[in-house]
Design brief:
Layout lengths: L1 H10 L5 H9 L4 H16 L10 H20 L30 H46 L1 H8 L39
């Protein structure tokens, strides 16, 4: 081992004096030499990476296809988010699961028919009362305008003048619900099942 160290030192000058002394005092065993040989052999046996030849025509064609896809997506109409309240689930559209209506007894059907007649009479009386009130208000308004026209033409024109800023009528509605006093919230977990739609 020392002769090998001297030979390497004399020939190439690769080892320094400290390395040579260390090799003489502490000779390497079989395992160290094999590991060092393996470490030196692996990089030397590695195959160099081959550079892939890129065809410029192929790259240009890929870019053109990507541009066409982007233009197609830009021209596509915007997808609207579906409103689940207006969409009937398919499980409710099965006609085989329609519940059969059981026939009513004779007494119940007569009771319902009599109740319906009473309701019709009540709504008819209510409608007549509303129409009579509206007619009386219109007659009182016309009579008041006639009297006002006899008193002053200017006041009459101001009364019948149309307010252009009355419509469209806008009003700010409350945007939140006020808290309920002395309300104790229920304990439990809240699972957010809101669907998120991405364009």
């Amino acid at each position: 081992m020392s002769a090998f160290g001297f030979a390497r030192f004399g020939a190439g000058g690769a080892y320094s004096s400290s390395q040579l002394i260390w090799n003489i005092q502490h000779p390497a065993n079989h395992w160290q030499s094999s590991l060092l040989g393996l470490r030196a052999a692996l990089p030397m046996r590695a195959e160099p990476k081959k550079k892939k030849k890129v065809d410029p025509k192929r790259e240009l064609a890929i870019r053109d296809r990507m541009k066409k896809k982007i233009k197609k997506l830009e021209k596509a109409p915007q997808e609207l988010i579906p409103i689940e309240d207006f969409v009937t689930p398919f499980r409710f559209m099965d006609e085989r699961k329609v519940r059969a209506i059981s026939p009513l007894p004779f007494e119940e059907s007569e009771k319902r028919a009599l109740l319906l007649k009473k309701w019709v009479v009540y709504k008819q009386v209510q409608h007549k009362a509303e129409m009579e009130a509206a007619r009386s208000l219109v007659e009182a308004q016309e009579e008041a305008l006639k009297e006002l026209c006899l008193e002053s033409e200017e006041l009459y024109q101001a009364a019948v003048w149309r307010d252009e800023w009355l419509f469209p009528f806008e009003r700010q509605e409350p945007t939140h619900t006020p808290p309920v006093p002395k309300y104790e919230a229920l304990e439990g977990r809240c699972n957010d099942i809101t669907k998120v739609y991405t364009q």
